[in-house]
Amino acid sequence: MKSKYNLSDYPLWTALVTPFDDNNHVDFQTLAQLVLAQQQAGNGILLLGSTGEGLALSQQEQRDIVRYVCELSPTVPLMVAIGGHDLALQLDWVEFCNTQPIDAFLVGSPLYAKPGNVGLTHWFKTLLDASDRPCMLYNVPGRSAVSISPNVIENLASHPKLWALKEASGDIATFESFRKASPDLAIYSGDDGLMPYFAQAGAAGLVSVAANAWPQQTAEFVKRSLAGTFPNLFTTWTDAVNSLFSVANPIPVKVLMHLQGQLASPRLRPPLTHLELSDTTFIKTANSTILSWS
């Protein structure tokens, strides 16, 4: 199934949070409002990533979320995350998602097992082969406990389903090593605070947490970063978005969205809890700073 969108036209993808009500059920009504906010900002939407607490959801909940958002028929592209450690289970997930009107996959490294280059290449190739959609690989050693090496990217560079890479190691040298390994691969920053620096190194865009709270402002900032304009705002931006990572993501952004009135509840799925963030001063200050831009 070919996407009706040119994915390169979307430099910002929002890793959408999953809202829960006070009974710990998915709050679909609020989810629809979050999708609408991203659509109005013109941002691509990523469902069920780590920011969306995808691994804390049951398989049925994941399917229900994908079906629900697809039925909303948003006017921006949808990407769905693949994550876990059971390859057969991930292949079942890809098979289901291939039946839905989504536009791309975010394919993460297997969790916990820490495979080497051969194991990682096999993992990604198997999922790329199964996909009917373009795929963005995801390098996030802080969560998966394994780094994708440039050698793995070289092994997969000619695969027709490999579209992009989300680089979230926090290391500009790693970004540059991927650029050398596959000069034509679109590389997106996975770190909000590093977007201005990754843009200077040739990033295609950003997969963002901050855009949940600030859809329009983040879109504008990505545009400015890629154009190399308004560098005086870079420090202001980095200081503000760093407040969203003072404890484990997505705790701060959910708390902030609750304070903004976007979420009826800041609830997260265990083991994460909003009670981890005892001081909201920094996110309140960041919110005032970013919203003052518009």
TrEMBL record:
Keywords: Amino-acid biosynthesis, Cytoplasm, Diaminopimelate biosynthesis, Lyase, Lysine biosynthesis, Schiff base. It catalyses: L-aspartate 4-semialdehyde + pyruvate = (2S,4S)-4-hydroxy-2,3,4,5-tetrahydrodipicolinate + H2O + H(+). Its main location: cytoplasm. Pathway: Amino-acid biosynthesis; L-lysine biosynthesis via DAP pathway; (S)-tetrahydrodipicolinate from L-aspartate: step 3/4. One of its GO terms (molecular function) is 4-hydroxy-tetrahydrodipicolinate synthase activity. Pfam families: DHDPS (PF00701). It is found in: Cytoplasm. The active site is at residues 138, 166. Homotetramer; dimer of dimers. Catalyzes the condensation of (S)-aspartate-beta-semialdehyde [(S)-ASA] and pyruvate to 4-hydroxy-tetrahydrodipicolinate (HTPA). This is 4-hydroxy-tetrahydrodipicolinate synthase.
